[in-house]
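Run: sequence + copper (II) ion -> complex structure.
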Amino acid sequence: MGVAGSALMLQRALLLLLLRTLAWAHVGSPDVYLDAQAGPYKIFVTVRPPAVIPGVAELEVRASNPDVRQIWAVPIPLNQLAARFAPVPDLLKVSAQDRQFFTGSLWMMATGSWQIRLQVKGSRGGGTVAVPVPSVALTTKPMSAGLAWPLGFLMLLLVAGLVLLVGASVREAKLLPGTVPDAEAKRRARRAMAMAFAIVAGLIGVGRWWWSSAEAGYRLKVYRPLQMVATLSPAGILQLRLNNPEWMNGPERNAGQNGPALFTRAMDDFIPDHEHLMHLYAIREPGLDVIYHLHPELIETAQFQLRLPQMPPGSYRLYGDVVHANGFPETMVAEVQVPAGLPGRPLEGDDAAGTAAAWSDTSSSTRFTLPDRYVMQWVRPEGALHAKVGMPFRFRLVDESGRPASGMELYMGMPGHAAFVKTDGTTFAHVHPNGSVAMASYMMAQSQLATTRLSNGAMSMPGMDMGESAVPNEVTFPYGFPSPGKYRIFVQMKRAGRVETGVFDADVR
Ligand SMILES: [Cu+2]
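>> structure
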């Protein structure tokens, strides 16, 4: 490998490292997509949280009906107590070209578990919905070289100017015009200039120290997910030990504007999210050709355990989704080597598994044949897929001869679950029919709406609470790819007591 090759590798490694540190609830997929019902109105919501806190979140709402007139939005903590002191909502702007498209910008003032409450008004009355939005600093903004060099040059110019000015004033200020300064005056001027330089350099040093300590303080606020370490015993027992890195662990780092900490992170406050404390996806790398959706048990604080099913050997990346009591979701990442011949149990309960051919640079698919000859189809819109564009991803299950599958069931309370995984390992998102938010946080936000009487009673969750008999053979997931590249989408639907896992490849521009 040549020098260029190793440089490229180094560059890729650095990029990967950078992207790893940007990871959070989901991994590398911070934007929130939600398909919601606000009273009588169906709306598609996109929230792009800021990368720095305080910062501005961008909000886009598409109403599926032209009778929506106005939408109001306000960010408030996803926490009963603070929710009572909600600020005045902002009116979203209606697009001049498209009366069903609304946009707005909202300040997110503090780190934590937040929600954006939307009030929708139109010709059929009003409706409300709350969108959970985790608000964390993902990065510090570095100064660009284009700004740093001119500023550095200006600083040098200022320092030199000041020192010369001091020298000139000591040397010549008291002289009559036309006379030449004597040796004594020149000596005094040199001394004064040296002193001036020392003072200015000292001031710059103090400024630099203050700036770096402020920056170090801010760096501690940049989000670091809970860490997870996986170990596998020869008997096939997977241990997942969690560790809480320095981030928002003490109130001193997170004092509210005037009062106690708004947000701290613990490791003993997980709440069930669609029936389980942790949803663990195990995906074999590098082909992303084997996937398991499993549910480890909490055996003591910060420790989960799971007896692995019979798994093909290889290197698996583990993505563990949890939700804290305050509605803050996190995805922890770990790796585990599964050796050949490991004793394993059969799949049981809500466990599910799927296999597919390894992805390749050219793979792109909208049709997946399942082991039982049923077929899962991705009903894809025409044209290329673009990053950062929210849209519904529609999947349909049919039998061998193309008839709609019957005997559909809910899988963990929903018509389907999907995982969007980028093939370079930088993105993982576990998405549901109502959107990319964690179900537990979503339900928490809606239940608060009901108790604060903002709701008109029409509280509905797309894809939830439907009778078993009504489960359709089709499911939609609102989502948008965070960046261009190759993605694999794993879709799970349940039929006749078994979970079908469809696998699809997508090329995103
Ligand atoms: Cu799920």
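>> summary
The longest strand covers residues 112-122. The chain is about 20% helix and 35% strand.
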